[in-house]
Amino acid sequence: CKNNVLVRHLRHAHATEQAVKAAQECCGPECVGMKCPRVARHSPPAEAHLPLKYVSMDCKGMPSWIPGERVTCLGIIDETSSLHQVEPMIGPTETSKNPVKAFDRTWVRPYMRPKWLKVDPHGAQVSDEFTNWCERQEIEVVDTAGGAKEQNGKIEHHNQLFEMMLEDVIREAQPQTETEWRECVSELVVAKNSLLSITGVSPIQMVFG
Question: Which pTM value belongs to this model?
Answer without folding.
Answer: 0.74
